[in-house]
Write a structure and sequence with these properties.
The structure is a single chain. By secondary structure, this protein is of the alpha+beta class. Helix content is 35%, strand content 17%. The strands form three sheets. A six-stranded antiparallel sheet has the order 2-3-1-9-8-10, covered by helices on one side. Helix 4 runs antiparallel to helix 13 and helix 8 packs across helix 20. The longest helix has 19 residues. The termini are far apart.
């Protein structure tokens, strides 16, 4: 995991630098290095720069050493010196792909998992994205053909942005803050998409287009197969050369991941104890259940307790690091950043987490309001395709703000495709008792059923969904909402549509976050990179994203 930055200039030889920098910067390399420093927290272990000024290309990597610790520093240059690569992420099937390349070449030893991208490109060109399983964002340049090749993983687990400066140079980077003061035109690089061609003729293509995006699936749920697919995903995500741990909120998603990881690690070491972490205010609702799971799986568990004041102090830092003004993302990111700092202090560099399950299985409580199976499924699709604006963005950037890699097995591409191909009638929750007298369903029932045998205590496996920002302590949302609202005047809020015509804030809390974002990331281009996470108002749901705002909170398993 790391932070990457790539600049592709339209000019070669003597690189033109925007006049706004005057005499302070003489070369594109200097500018690229300076701008990449904005994301240096992502890679505290090494900064690498490769400058092909004769081609107008500069690559920078801020590295966090996780796999291939000794030989994996980037940018990578091919053996023949013609291909340059920077890659952020993990390619989980790189060992299998290395065998493919070894058979073709006679010998192939990758410098790290990311190095496989360069090797595959040399053998197969740009037709390689369907071969890789993992989370990634990369930029590649081939000087023999002047070919640019940029791509982002199918779900958008890894952040990636692109921008154009006033000289027409293309900038690609892991965090948007690298583009401030350089690019006026800024965009989120779409997940599951590639960009390739020369600087004057770039073609964008979507390489990830499963049928479930446009069609309602009809495959019945098979809980045995579902369990096997998730276990395989967790197994692949455990490849690591450094100390690892797992987040454990006490909710069903993170608890399943921690339990499965423990079972897999004990195949090699029966006495293995996974390091697990939970966060919250004192006496937070989640602590009761995270302790229960930790005892059940015998993990080495640590509770990280924060005070409300600690969270309020770092609102601006969170908006800077997570690059968003979305209300639910800000609320959730603060406890996560505080937890990441504590985890890093203990020497952990990689953690597993349970993000993605709610989007795949319909775990948010507002899904109880879905009017039919079709709308339920396409709301799942909408949520999965927007993960890079919300949970993936929060999880990656909050953890990486302290140089910690976070992995999300639920978003393994093979698992996502398997789970999203399950018929929606086997996923949809039902709040009222069916007429046939069957037991009422709870959200994510098939996932819970798949891991109900010797993985977790029943009290956890059948626990109702508690959103992260609620589970850390109900007082957290109540206080931050009031704190933010108190800092916005009635007059300013009344003028919100004029001040912020793009994604106009609908509450004073939202206005406060937006005003901070605008100070850090000025301009409409940056504002458009944010998507607000709100439940479906047309389903009769309240706008506030807290699960506590939904009518079924704490009562979904009771007959109405």
């Amino acid at each position: 995991m790391c932070g990457i930055l790539a600049v592709f200039s339209k000019s070669t030889g003597e690189i033109r630098i925007s006049k706004k920098y005057g005499k302070r910067l003489k070369t594109l390399r200097e500018l690229a290095y300076r701008q990449s420093s904005c994301q240096r927290h992502r890679g505290p272990d090494h900064t690498g720069v490769t400058d092909w000024s004769d081609h107008g290309v500069v690559f920078v990597q801020e590295r966090l050493r996780i796999l291939g610790v000794e030989f994996g520093d980037q940018p990578f240059v091919s053996e023949n010196g013609n291909v340059l690569l920077v890659c952020n992420g993990e390619i989980y099937n790189y060992l299998e792909l290395s065998e493919v390349l070894a058979k073709r070449r006679g010998k192939y030893v990758p410098r790290s998992d990311s190095d496989i991208v360069l090797g595959l490109y040399e053998e197969f060109g740009t037709d390689i994205l369907h071969m890789m399983t993992g989370m990634f964002g990369f930029a590649l340049y081939d000087r023999t053909t002047r070919q640019i090749f940029v791509a982002r993983d199918p779900i958008g687990i890894i952040p990636l942005y692109r921008g154009y400066d006033d000289e027409g140079n293309l900038w690609v980077c892991s965090e948007m803050k690298c583009l401030v003061d350089v690019c006026d035109k800024v965009e989120v690089f779409p997940p599951g998409t590639s960009l390739h061609g020369t600087i004057d003729n770039l073609k964008e293509e979507r390489f990830y287009q499963p049928k479930w995006i446009t069609e309602i699936p009809s495959t019945p749920a098979d809980i045995t197969s579902l369990r096997e697919h998730l276990v395989a995903a967790v197994r692949s995500h455990l490849q690591c050369d450094v100390k690892l741990g797992a987040l454990l909120s006490g909710g069903v998603d993170s608890s399943i991941i921690a339990s499965v990881a423990t079972k897999i690690m004990r195949e090699r070491d029966p006495n293995y104890r996974l390091k697990t972490f939970s966060v919250g205010l004192e006496n937070a609702p989640d602590f009761k259940y995270s302790r229960m799971v930790a005892d059940y799986i015998n993990s080495d568990h640590e509770e990280i307790v924060f005070k409300v004041e600690d969270g309020l102090d770092c609102i601006r830092d969170i908006i800077f690091h997570c690059e968003t003004y979305d209300v639910t993302t800000v609320r959730c990111s603060i406890p996560m950043v505080l937890m990441a700092r504590a985890i890093k202090s203990g020497g952990i560099k990689m953690i597993l987490s349970g993000e993605g399950a709610d989007e795949i299985f319909g775990g948010y409580l507002y899904f109880f309001n879905a009017p039919n199976h079709s709308e339920f499924h396409f709301e799942l699709v909408k949520r999965v395709l927007a993960l890079h604006y919300s949970d993936c963005l929060r999880a990656n950037k909050a953890a990486m703000s302290w140089g910690i890699e976070l992995r999300v097995p639920f978003l393994d591409t093979n698992f996502v495709n398997h789970a999203m191909d399950i018929a929606p009638q086997d996923k949809i929750p039902i709040a009222k008792r069916p007429l046939n007298g069957c037991t009422p369903r709870i959200e994510k029932q098939i996932l819970r059923a798949a891991f109900s045998d010797n993985f977790l205590p029943d009290e956890v496996i059948w626990r109702q969904k508690e959103q992260f920002s609620d589970g850390v302590g109900y007082n957290w949302i109540d206080t931050i909402r009031q704190f933010a609202s108190d800092r916005v005047s009635d007059a300013d809020f009344a003028n919100a549509a004029v001040t912020y015509p793009i994604n106009t804030p609908s509450t004073k809390e939202a206005y406060y976050y937006r005003s901070i974002f605008e100070e850090i990331f000025p301009g409409d281009g940056y504002a458009r990179t944010v998507m607000r996470w709100i439940p479906r108002a047309d389903w009769g749901c309240p706008e506030d994203p807290s699960g506590r705002a939904q009518k079924v909170h704490s009562s979904t398993t009771q007959e109405e």
